[in-house]
Design brief:
By secondary structure, the chain is an alpha/beta fold. It has eleven helices and 14 strands. The structure holds nicotinamide-adenine-dinucleotide and uridine-5'-diphosphate-4-deoxy-4-fluoro-alpha-D-galactose.
Length: 338
């Protein structure tokens, strides 16, 4: 079975390509490299020992996509390509809607014209907004997003749902990721943020490696066990394996399926600092700052549905997530740049 992976040179995409190849699938990558290094593909090939057809192309470029579909004839698409910086999206809403929504519409049109109606879409726990309850099950109502990035995920879920409702030949899986961290055990691929990281774990690893002086903890007055925000961190390799398992929901007649991909366990910011220090022996100095706009107190999943229907469960705990994030950062202090 051949899988076209859009955004396959990115953080989650590159780890998923490794697991697809390990599971015996043929992966083809399309990425415009707007947020990825051209070095990723060679590193993934070094891990798996298999060649990966790579197309440097934009999913908004219909002509390029048509050529790729004609040449590769994929059976299914795993669609990671998109812009994902929450803060940036507030200042650049048009760019986010255009890239993420228009890009996906073009991709879907090329897919159906080529008779490929199987897609796994990267969604996010952000669609739950401030969740109505925790642990968050898939039945939890979608909420109000606090930024354009979140709305693109919300809208694309709706578009895919409507498309599948109208044409039952489509098989659609919406995967709602919680907070992916960690990296491949080899330490050769990992998260490579541009500039100062927005997310907690890359910020911590950059403090640990000496690139940043201290962590800023955004608020210690939330209604949580220690006042700092609680999230469901998941190892990126577990997340990648969730995609491999989700492929079985692209069998004919599967319809629309939605799954949370999380561990079901919530850790606070200070829990993460402590676990990182214990796992790596690195001290993480921090200061308490005011809350970050748009943040919520607590967000963690119920991982039951994916366990029951996909036979998928996260294997890695917080210690391995911290160790593997640190291995990647310490082996590659400047990410993919020499
Ligand atoms: P990433 O930025 O590392 O990967 C996205 C990839 O898509 C990049 O390689 C980028 O170059 C590519 N891309 C962007 N626009 C494109 C376009 N128009 N054409 C072709 N390629 C394009 O991000 P990631 O963390 O690997 O996230 C992958 C997906 O998962 C994204 O859709 C993201 O929104 C979603 N997601 C991520 C998180 C997270 O915390 N990392 C959480 C929930 C959902
Ligand atoms: N935090 C800090 N300091 C930092 C960065 C983060 O204290 O420098 C705190 C945040 O306030 C929050 C927690 O660490 O309490 C996690 O923050 P992240 O920015 O790492 O992650 P978020 O939960 O805010 O959001 C991430 C992605 C979203 C995605 C969501 C899914 O950025 O795109 O996970 O749950 F939708």
């Amino acid at each position: 079975m051949k899988i076209l992976v859009t955004g396959g040179a990115g953080f989650i995409g590159s780890h998923t390509v490794v697991e697809l190849q390990n599971a015996g699938y043929d992966a083809v990558v399309v990425d415009n490299l707007v947020n990825a290094s051209p070095k990723v593909i060679a590193r993934v090939e070094a891990i798996t020992g298999k060649k990966i057809p790579f197309y440097e192309a934009d999913i908004r470029d219909r002509e390029a996509l048509e050529k790729i579909f004609e040449q590769e004839k994929p059976d299914a698409v795993i669609h990671f390509a998109g812009l994902k910086a929450v803060g940036e999206s507030v200042g650049l809403p048009w760019e986010y809607y255009e890239n993420n929504v228009s890009g996906t519409l073009t991709l879907l049109d090329v897919m159906r014209k080529n008779g490929c109606k199987n897609i796994i879409f990267s969604s996010s726990a952000t669609v739950y907004g401030d969740p109505a309850f925790v642990p968050i099950t898939e039945e939890c109502p979608k909420g109000t997003c606090t930024n354009p990035y979140g709305w693109t995920k919300w809208m694309l879920e709706q578009i895919l749902t409507d498309l599948q409702f109208a044409d039952k030949e489509w098989n659609v899986v919406l995967l709602r990721y919680f907070n992916p961290i960690g990296a491949h055990k080899s330490g050769t691929i990992g998260e490579n943020p541009n500039g100062v990281p927005n997310n907690l774990m890359p910020y911590i690893t950059q403090v640990a490696v000496g690139k940043l002086p201290q962590l800023h903890v955004y608020g210690d007055d939330y209604d949580t066990h220690d006042g700092t925000g609680v999230r469901d961190y998941i190892h990126v390799v577990d997340l990648a394996l969730g995609h491999v398992k989700a492929l079985k929901k692209l069998e004919p007649g599967s319809g629309l399926n939605i799954y949370n991909l999380g561990t079901g366990v919530g850790y606070s910011v200070l829990d993460i600092v402590k676990n990182f220090e214990e796992a790596t022996g690195k001290k993480i100095p921090y200061v308490i700052d005011p809350r970050r706009a748009g943040d919520i107190a607590t967000c963690y999943s119920s991982a039951k549905k994916a366990q029951e229907e996909l036979g998928w469960e996260a294997q890695y705990g917080i210690k391995e997530m911290c160790e593997d994030s640190w291995r990647w950062q310490s082996m590659n202090p400047n990410g993919y740049d020499e």
